[in-house]
Design brief:
Number of domains: 1
Strand content: 15-25%
Protein name: Flavodoxin domain-containing protein
Largest sheet: 6 strands, mixed
Number of strands: 8
Structural class: alpha/beta
CATH class: Alpha Beta
Organism: Promicromonospora kroppenstedtii
Number of helices: 9
InterPro entries: Flavodoxin/NO_synth, Flavodoxin_dom, Flavoprotein-like_sf, Protoporphyrinogen_IX_DH
CATH superfamily: Flavodoxin domain
């Protein structure tokens, strides 16, 4: 079974998640291709899709949105899962007592629900390093008030990512053994 894991990442944290999902699926005997959304010219030819993006201000990156819009018919005709990354820190609930990951869902999860009928959606924590910020983001990231609020570090929960990838492999009916 051929699976495409397509992603849009700005600083590499989401790419790392996509690569980890791809590795976990390969370990379940799937033929997996992991690629940037912008680099996938043709999405046809796969049996299932996992699409993810970093989210900023509750929106996926433009490359991921364009990928879905360009390939909506193909994606909708196969099993598809969507993921997002973004929340920083380790808090499980916000100051109002709401689930942090649920509260960080991008608008696209709702927008694509009727379009793609995803079998699952998941938000993962991201990573942030002040020193790797570039371009226009540097202006905002170097403001003392922003630097003090943005927790720095790698908050990706690899066990949760592996478990989600395993659930995808289970849904696709792959064997429990690796290669």
């Amino acid at each position: 079974m051929r699976v495409l894991v397509a992603y849009a990442s700005k600083y590499g944290a989401t790419e790392g998640i996509a690569q980890r999902i791809g590795a976990a699926l390969r370990g379940r005997e799937l033929d997996v291709h992991v690629a940037k959304c912008a680099d996938v010219a043709e999405a046809a030819g796969y049996d299932a899709y996992v699409v993810g993006s970093a989210a900023y201000e509750f929106n996926w990156r433009k490359d991921a949105r364009k990928f879905v819009e360009r390939n909506a018919d193909e994606l909708a005709s196969h099993p598809v899962w969507l993921f997002s990354s973004g929340p920083l820190g380790t808090e499980k609930v916000d100051k109002e007592g709401k689930d942090v990951l649920k509260g960080a869902e991008p608008k696209q999860f709702t927008e694509y629900a009727d379009l793609l009928h995803p079998r699952g959606t998941q938000v993962f924590r991201g990573a942030y390093d002040h020193d790797k910020i570039r371009g226009a983001d540097r202006i905002i990231a170097w403001m003392p008030a922003i630097r003090d609020v943005m927790p720095q570090g790698d908050f990706r929960e690899w066990d949760a990512i592996d478990a989600w990838a395993t659930s995808i492999a289970d849904a696709l009916g792959t064997s429990a053994g690796g290669r």
